[in-house]
Design goal:
Helix content: 25-40%
Radius of gyration: 27 Å
Distance between the termini: 26 Å
Order of helices and strands: HEEHEHEHHEEEHEH
Shape: globular
CATH topology of the largest domain: Lysozyme-like
CATH class of the largest domain: Alpha Beta
CATH architecture of the largest domain: 3-Layer(aba) Sandwich
Strand order of the largest sheet: 3-6-5-7-4-8
Number of domains: 2
Structural class: alpha/beta
Length: about 300
């Protein structure tokens, strides 16, 4: 695909709040209004003593532990069991990009929905996708700013006759990677971008500034693409990573869906060497590719 544009903010998902007044198991509760201060603690101590007498094997309560807290085997404290579990879970990866949003106004949304109805069928009402696939590209040029300006246009240029016949919305991608490895997000990952025939309904597009000839893609871009794929695979149920040059070999895969008969393009970007270098750095993720490079995941 040619020239890429830049980034876009994606709303981060936050954990739902607990209903007001709801108490987690193991959390402390304030004494009732008619209970004198300290009386609840004395009653709890008496109850614990009685329980210990009935069951000599019961562990004694840890002295000095604040009410409502739990003490772990290593002496650390957690507010409740849920908090302890969260503390042990791996932290989500930090987004490796900066936002540089392209124009995705109401007009572009309308053009995108129109494109989806033509190429995906049905009656889609929005621009949301369910990412399963990452497609790597190069822009065909040497300037990140020129790529961004190109993608920022809402409508496809008339000179690209094959693409223009297939819809008015401009091409684009969710990400643009500069030659120094800087990653720009052009739109939220789960917004539709027109970048790969037959896969746009579930594909995240990554454009790399370069053309593979006069401006070959760089080692920094290889590393950046691998880092971005790791982030996306940890954030979405990604199963495949392919190059734009490999898309046609995926036509028999269930992911491929194109309603317009005969609408196909043949692309050479970003090329076998770049895809081999990126795959070597994400091999442990076991993400599949096209049939000849498929990994363990379906």
């Amino acid at each position: 695909m040619a020239v890429l544009a830049t980034s876009l903010t994606l709303a981060a998902c936050s954990r739902p709040n607990e209903p007001p007044g709801a108490a987690n198991d193991g959390s402390s509760r304030a004494p009732s209004a008619d209970q004198p201060p300290g009386e609840g603690a004395e009653a709890a101590a008496e109850a614990a003593q009685e329980a210990a007498e009935e069951d000599p094997t019961a562990a004694p309560a840890a002295s000095g532990a604040p009410a409502g807290s739990s003490e772990t085997a290593d002496g650390s404290e957690g507010d409740n069991a849920e908090g302890s579990a969260d503390a042990g879970a791996p932290a989500p990866p930090a987004p490796p990009y900066v936002d540089r949003l392209i124009n995705y106004d109401d007009a572009r949304r309308a053009l995108t929905v129109e494109y989806r109805r033509l190429h995906e069928g049905g009656d889609p009402q929005d621009v949301l996708i369910e990412p399963r696939l990452v497609v790597l590209h190069h822009t065909g040029g040497s300037s990140v700013d020129a790529a961004w300006r190109y993608f920022n246009r809402p409508k496809i240029e008339s000179g690209r006759k094959t693409l223009a016949k297939a819809g008015d919305v401009n091409v684009g991608a969710q990400f643009l990677v500069d030659r120094d490895g800087t990653i720009f997000r052009l739109m939220p990952e789960n917004w539709h971008a027109r970048h790969c025939v037959g896969f746009n309904h579930l594909a995240i597009g990554v454009e790399n500034v370069g053309d593979g000839k006069e401006h070959p893609l760089t080692d920094a871009q290889v590393e950046a693409n691998a880092t971005l794929v790791r982030y996306l695979a940890a954030t979405y149920p990604i199963t495949h990573v392919i190059g734009h040059n490999e898309a046609n070999s995926m036509r028999e895969h269930p992911y491929f869906h194109e309603e317009v008969a005969g609408y196909r393009t043949r692309k050479g970007d970003p090329g076998p060497a770049f895809m081999t270098a990126v795959r070597a750095r994400i091999q442990d993720l076991e993400l599949a590719g096209p049939p000849e490079t498929a990994g363990k995941r379906p």
